[in-house]
Amino acid sequence: MQVLCMGEALIDMLSNRGQPGIDDNNESFRKFAGGAPANVAVAIAKLGGNSALLGKLGNDQFGHYLMKTLSSFGVATTFTAYSETGKTALAFVGLDSDGERSFEFYIDNAAHTDLHPEDLVPALFDAPRIVSFCSGSVCLPGLRAVTAEAIPKFKAAGSVLTLDINLRPAFWDDPALAPTTIDDIASQVDIIKASKEEMLELYGEAEADVKVAHWLSQGVSLVLITNGAAPIAYYSNEATGSFASPKDVKAVDTTAAGDAFVGGFLFQLAAQINHRNELTNWLANQNELLRALRFASACGAHAVSHYGAFDALPTAKDIQ
After folding, report:
1. Angle of helix 36-46 relative to helix 61-72, nearest 10 degrees?
2. What is the CATH number of the domain that holds 250?
3. In sequence order, what DSSP letters do the residues of 233-257 get, joined into one string?
4. Cross-strand bridge partners of residue 134
């Protein structure tokens, strides 16, 4: 199956702070192609899978750089267009000594927010796909409308819907809407990935586990909760458990870690099923789920040990 990633491609301006000898006086920033949905698309393509990006780029030097870079990695850009009004968003990324990130977004009039219902062309629904998107696809009224229209069409086409919460409060017109809006959209998908930090920020310690149970009761097939280097928790109606992350990984940049994990997991899933109605049987085989989690974890571990986003994502040879 093709994995169609819906959402932003942007430019990560990565600081060299945290490296030996770097302080305020000699800090510099290096340009990297990024954006969570774009990262997932590239992750799958680099592993040898079939991926595409549904989104808008700025008709500017950064947007043309992104289009060229996506194509160079093998991501299909059939559904990637240039915005007539928006500019490519920038994310200035700071790193501490452990490779943990901090973000400053420049997203006013961002091209990736210039999606409209007419961008949902019939070819998007001509075959079953795995459709991957983040909470950035519901952070603004216009994007919420497009996503709400797309979901039933994708389901009717037999596509699997996956949500990586990937919470970015700066993206939201009103961050106070995030908990309820994400809860609503999460209840409509098949697979959810979130970090423990995101769950606590959105729903608090008391409600985080309750929310997972609620999503499963609403028809969600699988919930994955990551927690840095701690074990990954998985929840489905067939099984609940945890899977240990790789040990002794030296993290230098966590920018694309979650996206590498999602890309690795969806790469495995896309190789195993051809239609949404096959997902339940796939999940019933716990060995297949654990194999996918092992592969995805290795992808994430590789990403954190390299700088940047696209460049840090592994190939199949890297994982072997």
Report:
1. 30
2. 3.40.1190.20
3. EEEESS-EEEEPPPSS---S--TTH
4. 164
What's the average model confidence in pLDDT over 134-150?
A: 97
Mean pLDDT for all residues in the chain = 92
Q: DSSP class of residue 110? A: B
Q: Which residue has the tokens 């940047």?
A: 308
Res. 309 pLDDT band, cuts 50 70 90: confident
Those residues whose C-beta lies under 8 Å from the C-beta of residue 237, and which sit 6 or more positions away, are 216, 221
Q: How high is the pLDDT of residue 143?
A: 97
At 28, give phi and psi (nearest 5°): -140, 165
pLDDT (0 to 100) of residue 256: 79
| Two tokens, residue 208 | 């985080």
Question: Is 90 exceeded by the pLDDT of residue 253?
Answer: no
Residue 110 included in any domain: no
224 in any annotated domain = yes
Q: Is residue 275 left, alpha or beta, with left meaning phi > 0 and alpha meaning psi from -120 to 50?
A: beta
Report the SS3 class of residue 31. Answer: strand
Domain that includes residue 131, residue range: 3-8+35-84+117-319
Number of domains in the chain: 1
3-state secondary structure of 94: strand
Alpha helix stretches (DSSP H) within the chain: 36-46, 61-72, 141-156, 178-186, 196-217, 257-272, 279-284, 286-304, 316-319
pLDDT tens-place string over residues 89-128? 998 877 665 656 677 889 999 999 999 999 999 999 999 9
